[in-house]
Amino acid sequence: MRVDIDRKILAANDELAGQNRARFKGAGVFVLDLMASPGAGKTSTILATIGALRDRYAIAVIEGDIASKVDAEKVRAHGIPAVQINTGGACHLEAAMIRRAVDTLDLDAFDLIIIENVGNLVCPSDFDLGENAKVMILSVPEGHDKPYKYPNIFQVSKAVILNKYDTMGVFDFDEPEFRGVVASLNGQAPIFPISATKGDGVAEWAEWLAGRIDACKAGEQA
Predict the structure, then answer these.
(1) How confident is the model at residue 220 (pLDDT cuts 50, 70, 90)?
(2) Nearest-10 Cα torsion for 132, 30, 74, 171
(3) Is 0.90 surpassed by the pTM of this model?
(4) Residue 199: what are its φ and ψ, rounded to 5°?
């Protein structure tokens, strides 16, 4: 019975996600779903990405948290529109939540919407939001073994950001093993080592994202 219920939930979500996707496509806006565990550096990565791309694209952010509006306020402090979603306990965002959030935005005014999903390495990978791409962030202090433990989030990601790369010498992180396991799970996903708070590596990640945004605006497969 639980399997049937889960299927019904996902089917309903997928239908709404399809509606979101059509809406985003009609507006020519690229939507990025950023997933990571708590403390991996989602918000700092978003701010670094905004800093790299704000002169080229109009950007908005949708912040997903169980509670509080701290991260949305950080984004707004940089002059970027941000919509806060509080899930009230749910460990992931769903397509219906995104639909309500984008109702508050003029989609035609934006080139890029970044969704910061709830901090979790399990549930967010299962729920389609209508995004163009899911990207996951792993921080070096979390360890190189996470692809073994949470393979699905790596499999659904179009790219992987390895954040806090400047701490590599402090932690027992086996980068070659990490890269090898990610490649075995998802050989198409590039890995971008960055230090979001310092700016190291952000340009390479931002250029990859810019290519996807431009393709979306041109009506091409992003």
Answers:
(1) confident
(2) 50
(3) yes
(4) 90, -5
